Amino acid sequence: MSKHPVNVRARPPAATADYRAVLKQALQSHQAGDLDIAERLYNDVLELRAGQPDAMHYLGVLCHQRGRSDEGMRLIEAALKITPRHPDAHNNLGNIHKECGRFGDAERCYRKALACGPQHYNAQNNLAVVLEAQERLEEAFEAYATLLRQAPKFAQGYYLMGMFLRNHAQSMEHVEQSVECFRTAYALDARNVRALESLGMSLYALHRLEEAAQVYRDWLAREPEHPVPRHMLAACGAAEAPSRAADDYVREVFDAFAESFDEQLLKNLNYRAPQVLAEALGERLPSASGELDILDAGCGTGLCAPLLRPYARRLVGVDLSGGMIEKARLRGGYDELQEAELTGYLQAQPSAYDIVFSADTLVYFGELQAVLHAAHDALRSGGWLAFTVEVAQGEDERIDLSPSGRYQHTRRHVERALSSAGFSRVSIGHDTLRKEGGQPVTGWVALAQRTPGH
User: Fold this and answer.
1) Which residue in 414, 408, 413, 419 sits closest to 451, CA to CA?
2) Which position among 229, 319, 348, 438 has the lowest Cβ density within 10 Å, counted as fewest Cβ atoms?
3) Structure-derived torsion over alpha carbons of residues 45, 48, 50, 54, reported in degrees to the nearest 10
4) Contact 176/206 with Cβ under 8 angstroms?
5) For position 264, what pLDDT does the model report?
């Protein structure tokens, strides 16, 4: 659902204790993640008391969580006809619109929530997010500032303000301000480790390299087994870079990122990698006739599914993050989803696919040869590999681990790895994949074919 937890405090009903007890059980099951039980119990409440607004509201939230967003909206709208001044219901209806990409509708819902409850911090926070998504940046900044004035102890508000300042930085002063926001966010909530990770990245962007490294050293001293500071210490040049990002690092980052992944990438960072790669691949393929077996390698939340589905007889998604897999399952479009490490998965799929498609996944691999060799063997004769990685400048063969935690590759490294893996008909272009720190991130857009007849 939203990265902001649903407020599941039931409004006091005016009827018998029977349905109240069932509603309480439903809310407890919902909060515990037992969605099957919660859905059954919400429906039981509505049988006991038709039109009970809390049951309709939270059943609507649950329907959206299960991928039935239209049904969820109808239920919450029906609840609001009965209790029109319920700020939580307006906020949750806004969340559904936001996560379906209807930012104007979401904005109207959040403004209604704030009209009903001016101190509803989640609605204020969400309003800022959708204003940012609509590129109304001055209004978004004011909305974040209002949130921090209203809720000076709200750690997530400082974190999001820090991200806003860095993502849209027009000067180094904005990055400096993001540092203070991330420090405050972590001071208010020591569980917000993403604030620490972002703090180090902002310090690195300011060329305060030793301070960035010290953030990760201190974090590692407190949590010696935590994969994120271990990886990020290498990313800022203070430790030896691994040949690829460790599985536990990737899993930790993307499980934590799953709830807000689409929002941050698509709406705030102008994420374009899936579309750019799909367009490049489409030029090499026959018309979209639904006859190919396709692997979305590193499927994330399933952003690539609608781009690949027209070509696919069978579309499989694989990802190391269980949180991402669950989001992809809710989005739909796949015939199968697997939680697995990519190289190992490919090695177990000899000649299984016509296309292996990987948008912004190999940025977590340094040396590419092993994974590209596995992809070659997973393709059928004449099959295509399509992937993006970030550009490292220079004519030499080099891999850099950037302060973002992602690897960058020179063109020569990509060419050598593809040749060594056995690919022919190689094409490597470049395009902008996303924005970071207000600046475009350029990537290699690589297409390679397994030689027909081999």
Assistant:
1) 419
2) 348
3) -30
4) yes
5) 62
- What is the set of domains in the chain, with CATH numbers? 1-84 (1.25.40.10), 261-450 (3.40.50.150)
Q: Are 274 and 303 in contact (CB under 8 A)?
A: yes
Radius of gyration of the chain (CA): 24
| Cα distance between residue 321 and residue 410, in whole Å | 27
Q: What percent of the chain has pLDDT over 90?
A: 76
Q: Write down the pLDDT at residue 3.
A: 42
Can you tell me which residue has the tokens 């010290």? 214
Amino acid, res. 382: G
User: Angle at the Cα of 213 (from 210 to 219), degrees rounded to 5?
Assistant: 140
Determine the 3-state secondary structure of 342 from DSSP: helix
3 state DSSP class of 434: strand
Spell out the alpha helix ranges (H) of 117-246.
121-133, 137-150, 155-167, 172-188, 193-205, 209-222, 227-235
- Residue 68 corresponds to which tokens in the numbers above? 């039935």
- Which pLDDT belongs to residue 10? 43
Q: In the structure, what pLDDT confidence band is assigned to residue 351 with cuts at 50, 70 and 90?
A: very high
Q: Which residues pair with 430 in a beta bridge?
A: 444
Give the predicted TM-score (pTM) of the model: 0.78
Q: What's the CA gap between 269 and 358, in Å, rounded?
A: 19
**How distant, in Å, are the alpha carbons of 69, 88, 336, 445 from that of 262?**
16, 23, 21, 21
Task: Say how many Å lie between the first and final Cα of the chain, rounded.
Answer: 46
Calpha distance 203→296 (Å, rounded):
35
Label residues 194-224 b or e (16+ Cβ within 10 Å = b): bbbbbbbbbbbbeebeebbbbbbeebbeeee
Task: DSSP letter for 320, please.
Answer: S
> What's the length of the chain?
454
* Residue pair 186/199 in contact by the 8 Å Cβ criterion: yes
User: What are the tokens at 118?
Assistant: 């001016």
